[in-house]
Amino acid sequence: MKRRTQNKRRVKKNLVYMAQPIYGGWVTMTAHLSLKYNYPLFRVGNRTENNSRDYGYGVKYINISKEDLKKMTNVLVTAIDKHYYQFLEYLPKSTSIIIHDPTEVRTSEKNPNPLLKYLPKFKVYTIREAVQEYLVKNFKLRSTFNKHPFFEYSIIKGTKGKNSPKAVSISRIDFDKNTDIILKANKLINNPKDRIIIYGAENRMYVFHKLQNLGFKKYHKGKFDKTLPPSLGTNKNILDGVKFVVDLSVIKNDGGGTQYTFLEAIHQGCTLILHKKWVAQKKSIFKNGVNCLAVETPEELASIINKSINTNSINKSAKGLLKNHTKVIW
Description:
By secondary structure, this protein is α/β, with parallel strands linked by helices. It contains 11 helices and 13 strands. The protein has 2 domains: 132 residues, Rossmann fold (3-Layer(aba) Sandwich); 166 residues, Glycogen Phosphorylase B (Rossmann fold).
């Protein structure tokens, strides 16, 4: 399939976030788009307000009514979920919309997805080639592939010094994140000080069924603040002094690209440890031993943490990947 790419001329856009989640990749990408290009951000409410509200990450947003949404130009919907489908009819025909992963277009005869009715009318963006191909294969829907935008925030150093953990996880705690592998690996890590510290908002069902007997409470330090860099309370940078960032995310039909946890780790000089299934994706930019390390079992993960590995060359190679996200035009 011939890849469609975006024209390099950038037009100022009005960002509209049409989803309920307040944590995760949708939220983070919206913030990076707003910060990087100085795009205003809106959410759909009962009425249009004059005052702005706090979105997080240093970004403000304004609530607008569905009537005013209909009049807006250069709309880019950064994310949409079922709670906002009722507003699809109010989006201008010139609207652009981002599809992040295949779950957003999931449909069935019993539960048809109304979003699929509107997508052919909009300009659709995808941020991973695997998702772009998925839309063509399953819905004959063409999209423009564009990389995650990354806002190069200032790195705050020296907040923890020698007290920094050797490895952390900063992704959501959920079934597709394989946090259980991290906790099982902690039992195999020789030095207690080297065990992986976990930050992030948790799916309580996942914690209850999979993690509560693996020492989750001991290693989970809470969800971090919506700041750049990621921080928790008085700690202004939870990645300061950290050697490894562990992200074992696996999402079917969604690999081959990046996530913001990856980009933040690379930006701050941490070495990525990813799941082998992510690296094995056909068009994955990540190569085991070249710009990341890859594991799929607790034993493999613990082995990396237990060893004294020089990762300077891996980190240098990973930095090269970041340029594609700092220079991208949206």
